[in-house]
Design brief:
Shape: globular
CATH topology: Immunoglobulin-like
Strand content: over 45%
Largest sheet: 6 strands, antiparallel
Distance between the termini: 6 Å
Number of domains: 1
Structural class: mainly beta
Length: 110
C-alpha cells in the first residue's frame, strides 16, 4: 500500500504568526509523468469541497511545501499522472491546533 505523509514544520515568524508550513511527502508511484497535489479544507472523509491546487511537480519529485492557517483541518490529495491518465489519490489529513506546537497528523492509506 502506498502512503502519503504530511508533516508539520513549525516555522513561526512575527509577520506570519497564524500560518504553519506543511511538508507534504508521498511514496513514488513507480510510473508517472507528474504529480498533482491538492488541498481541501476539512477532513478527508467529508464530501469534496473545491480543492486548491498546491503544486504540479515532475516525475520522481516526492514532496512539496505548503502554508496553511492554524486551527483548521486540511485534506491533501496527491495524484500520479501517467500518459494523461490520473491515478487514484494518496491522502493525508492534518489538523493544525490553535497553538503552533499543538497539532495532530492522521495518515490514511490508499
Amino acid at each position: 500500500m502506498k502512503k502519503l505523509l504530511a508533516a508539520l514544520l513549525l516555522m513561526a515568524t512575527p509577520a506570519l504568526a497564524y500560518e504553519v508550513d506543511v511538508l507534504v511527502q508521498w511514496t513514488d508511484a513507480g510510473k508517472e509523468d507528474e504529480y498533482r497535489v491538492q488541498r481541501e479544507r476539512g477532513p478527508c472523509a467529508a464530501p469534496l469541497s473545491t480543492p486548491v491546487s498546491v503544486a504540479t511537480v515532475g516525475a520522481n519529485v516526492l514532496e512539496v511545501m505548503d502554508t496553511v492557517q492554524d486551527n483548521e483541518t486540511y485534506c491533501y490529495r496527491v495524484y500520479a499522472v501517467y500518459r494523461g491518465q490520473v491515478g487514484a489519490p494518496q491522502k493525508a489529513e492534518i489538523t493544525v491546533g490553535p497553538v503552533l506546537n499543538d497539532f495532530t497528523v492522521t495518515v490514511t492509506e490508499q
